[in-house]
Write a structure and sequence with these properties.
The chain is α+β, with helices and mostly antiparallel strands. It contains eight helices and 16 strands. Helix content is 29%, strand content 28%. Bound molecules: 3-[O-phosphonopyridoxyl]--amino-benzoic acid. 3-[O-phosphonopyridoxyl]--amino-benzoic acid is lined by residues 35, 159, 185, 188-190, 207, 209-212, 246-249.
């Protein structure tokens, strides 16, 4: 089926949704993106995603050139044009067309704005019930003063290198450490651990995920867990009762083995399963209805 793609203010057929080979998004990974989900006619936390996109663009000195409200409306319009009530939205803002030099000032016509709405399957369903067996990889997460992990930029090579290491090892996901050796996050997901009634997640070196924020809120409010953002080592994750990952694409997925160490009972734990259920309930309510 051919999708309708939003490109610079117009909905065009997939086959016609093209940008120039001189776009600096392609030539240099110069741009920003968001991955967003819609659940039963609600775009989950759309405001937070749009705010994060504009923050990335601001740090990269990209003027998106349209209001946040107009951008939100464009997301909804793209979902509707494709008849999607549930789906995945990829919002991309590139630096735009320039020449063969990395200076962004060469991109005089402003950014290209692309919205794709489609279905997504990240991991097979059985992994949600069985849990993931993952490893720590040698590639460390970007230093905050090199490419800040808060930037959801089109340069995802740091995460892709880690993903390749996971692929080579035959596992579905990878833990990345920060430059100081603390656990940061996975290649496209945040990481959590449960122990002694506490829910803990890394303080630094990671993207501040929107699913992460939602799960921290649910855990504190609904499950009355003590929620902490702190420095965490692999040792602490090895000895956790439960571990799980969160992300827009992955949602909330249990981890049952890390670097050959069984986590807890080796099966998805009760807190993880409760949070998964509560997250799905929230996702259908908390966002922009269309
Ligand atoms: N860390 C990183 C590095 C990410 O890229 C997350 C954490 C989770 O953040 P959210 O806000 O989604 O809870 C992300 C998000 C993909 C894909 O194609 C990846 C993400 C989002 C959507 C799709 O693998 N990463």
């Amino acid at each position: 089926m051919s999708l309708k793609i939003y490109l610079n203010g117009k909905l065009v057929e997939q086959a016609d949704a093209k940008v120039s080979v001189f776009d600096h998004g392609l030539l240099y990974g110069d741009g920003a993106f968001e991955g967003i989900r819609a659940y039963a006619g609600v775009v989950f936390r759309l405001k937070q995603h749009i705010d994060r996109l504009y923050e990335t663009a601001h740090s990269l000195l990209i003027d998106i050139g349209m209001s946040k409200d107009a951008m939100s409306a464009a997301v909804v319009k793209t979902l509707k044009a494709n008849g999607l009530r549930d789906g995945y939205i990829r919002l991309v803002v590139t630096r735009g067309d320039g020449d063969l030099g990395l200076d962004p000032r060469k991109c005089k016509n402003g950014p290209n704005i692309i919205i794709i709405a489609d279905k997504i399957v990240l991991y097979p369903q059985e992994l949600y019930t069985r849990g993931l067996d993952i490893i720590t990889v040698p590639t460390v997460r970007n230093h905050p003063e090199a490419i800040n992990p808060q930037l959801k930029s089109l340069n995802y090579l740091n995460n892709i290198l880690a993903k390749i290491e996971a692929n080579n090892a035959g596992v579905p996901e990878a833990i990345m450490l920060d430059g100081s050796g603390y656990v940061a996050e996975c290649t496209g997901d945040n990481i959590f651990m449960v122990k002694d009634g506490q829910l803990k997640t890394p303080l630094q070196g990671r993207l501040r995920g929107i699913t992460r924020d939602a799960v921290m809120e649910i855990a504190a409010k609904k499950l009355k867990l003590d929620v902490q953002e702190t420095l965490l080592t692999r040792h602490e994750f090895f000895n956790a009762e439960e571990v799980f990952l969160t992300g827009t694409a992955a949602e909330l997925i249990p981890v049952v083995k890390i670097d050959g160490r069984r986590i807890g009972t080796g099966k998805p734990g009760p807190v993880t399963l409760k949070l998964l259920k509560l997250f799905h309930e929230l996702a259908r309510k908390d966002g922009v209805k269309f």
